[in-house]
Amino acid sequence: MSVLVLVLAVCAACCLGFGFVLQQNAAERAPLGDFLSPRLLLDLARMPSWLAGTGLMVAGLVLGALALGGGELSLVEPLLATNLLFALALSRIRTKQPLGRQGWAGLALLAGGVSAFILAGEPRGGSAVTDPVRHWLIVGVMLGLALLLTLWAGRVRLTWGPALLALAAGLVYGVQDALTRVSGRRFTSGGPAELLTGWQPYAVVVLGITGLLLVQSAFETAPLRRSLPALTAAQPLAGIACGVGFLGDRLHTDAGALAWEAGGLAAIVAGIVLLGLHPAMPQGAGTGTGESGREPALERG
Description:
With 301 residues, this protein is mainly α. Helix content is 75%, strand content 0%. Helix 7 packs antiparallel against helix 10.
């Protein structure tokens, strides 16, 4: 594993984690009538804290793209999942909450899971799948599932809506990372002309805006702990599926390696859930249920 890829991926995770916290702090003050509407992004753009968070998120995306340019998707995605550690670190500074057993357990599971998956699988490059049917099938399944989750979230937005939107955004971002990797390959092989004549870079932009709207709608309607774990868990799983499915990423597939890889992914998800539910994570402005306190306004919207 390249040290540069490791540093870039961890720096990207840091920017993303800090950016998500700042974005959610701003989004919870946005009008709830803008739920899943492009107007939400226009309203948020007037808030300095949201702009700062978005700037960090963009920096994280750029660093992540650079990491993807030098490493395989199946390697970079688990490292990007550590953004939750940085989100928790910033939240702890704001809330003064100690890590406690839950925090340390989540940290150990997430770090151990990432290490186990990478060491057992040893992700490495290979020949990308040229069959367009397989390519479109995997992308279609991911985006189709994201659409279904979004439609479902619109029906249950006061209960499971934020988690469902975050899951959808994670799937969208996983596909975006895969297409970012494809775009990087096109640029490397033929320069700007080769890059701009393909559909992938334009899809990256569209998916980025779509994911941003989904994430901000999730942040708007519930505390960070209700959405960020789902987002952080879904993105690497979707990215790894795309990497192995059509980008040519290769992992060790003997019985022992597969067991460690599966265990590593399970530990990553468990660690994300524990950290995401940690008391240090923002609870929202409301009281009692931990919601934002704006349910009646949402029901009328």
